[in-house]
Design a protein that fits this description.
The chain is an alpha/beta fold. The chain is built from 13 helices and 11 strands. Helix 5 packs across helix 13 and helix 8 packs across helix 12.
Amino acid sequence: MFDSPFYKIAVVDIGSNAIRFQLSRITTYEGLPMIKKLEYVRFPLRLGHDVFSKGSILAETEAKFMKLMRTFQLLLELYEVEDYMICATSAMREADNGREIAQKVLKEIGLKILIIDGDEEADLVNTAIVSYLDDRNCIHVDVGGGSTELNLYYQKEKFASKSFKMGSVRELEHKEANDMREKMREWINRKITKYEGEFVAIGTGGNITKIFDLATHKNKDLRSTDINEVIRVRDMIAQYDIKEREVRFSLNENRSDVIIPATEIYLEAMRCARAQNLIVPDVGLKDGMILSLYQKIIKK
């Protein structure tokens, strides 16, 4: 039987490469949350392009952002949601005018935007992947447009977490990637030194999900593959130019240029952690936000 009423909730993930809106109906059945997606919108507004090259969100981008927020506000009204949660990550938190724009959205549209730090982002994603953990050593890698969050687990318990200013869009705009990758390698090596054996990797984010979808050698039921298959798919995509990738592999316009730099980050983390196998659960920040918001509602 159902353990709680049905609720309609909505979340918005304001990333560096795109903005995602999901409206869901959720309840609890025999102790487990049951989520039904009612609406999903992914809009390719690349805030990171402005922020990582200019330091702020430009006027033209801000105008589109405000229109998008008004659209989401109308959807919240039409669906009569119980509650909503809007989180902004690296691009908006680093933008000189990010908090100013968030205040403008609150004043003019009535929506509250939470600008979260890397640790909060990692914790929310962790909420969504916990069911994929087992007793093996595990490294969770979440690569976004502007930041990469790493979580390390031993027997399902997280023992280290770190956010790095390194992401797919940022690498297109900056030349600091090598230095940041070296910091990531040093951190992983230092944290895992006392743990014997290889780690299994869990990869979240739109780019690694697309890599998995294109993989031939994979276990669809377990949503797992291995590092050699990730390399093969990366090399297959990399041989084509940006426009050809969109046609041949059905990539979104703002995915085709970032998928290779994003995949390189996943591979770098896997090599450092001695991870040969990869699980791609197709969940991310918005899924953690849904579960977090639901827990807040049922505790009221």
